[in-house]
Specification:
Elements: H1 12-31, H2 36-44, H3 50-78, H4 82-98, H5 105-115, H6 123-150
């Protein structure tokens, strides 16, 4: 006898993450901010509960700032090249590991590598804007995802 399991692909967590991604992109677009980093953050910060998300935010925020700093440093020194992508990724991973920011390594590495596509000439603006964007959008995602953990 063969057991056939019903797969439920569309659950509350998936729907709320989709809504968070859509609203994040829509808000960033409406105020003229680059929304790629905020959308990436919405996707990779999926946690089972709001409490877990809040705990990891305190790790992800400084880790993302590290990734952003490496992106700016290597872009300033080398421009945007394949070597720059490799150096940003490896430096971010090593730094997060040494600083024991393991829960933030993925977000930090993605932030650093994604920033290489937007860092071309506004380094100072991005230096202050990207970490604050990450903090703002992380708080926003907690709000969106909180309802799932409370129901």
């Amino acid at each position: 006898m063969i057991n056939v399991k019903k797969f439920n692909f569309l659950g509350g967590r998936i729907i709320k993450t989709g809504i968070a991604v859509f609203l994040t992109a829509l808000i960033c677009q409406s105020i003229g901010w680059p929304y790629m980093l905020a959308v990436i953050t919405a996707i990779v910060t999926i946690e089972p509960t709001a409490a877990d998300s809040i705990k990891k935010a305190f790790i992800r925020f400084p880790a993302s700032a590290i990734g952003a700093a490496f992106a700016m440093l290597y872009t300033f020194l080398l421009g945007v090249t394949p070597l720059t992508y490799m150096l940003v990724a490896v430096s971010t991973i090593i730094s997060c590991s040494k600083l024991r920011l393991h829960a933030g390594t993925l977000v930090a590495t993605l932030t650093g590598v994604a920033m290489l596509t937007i860092v071309h000439d506004h380094l100072l603006y991005i230096a202050f804007n990207s970490p604050s964007d990450h903090q703002y959008w992380t708080a926003y995602f907690f709000t969106c995802k909180y309802h799932r953990s409370s129901s």
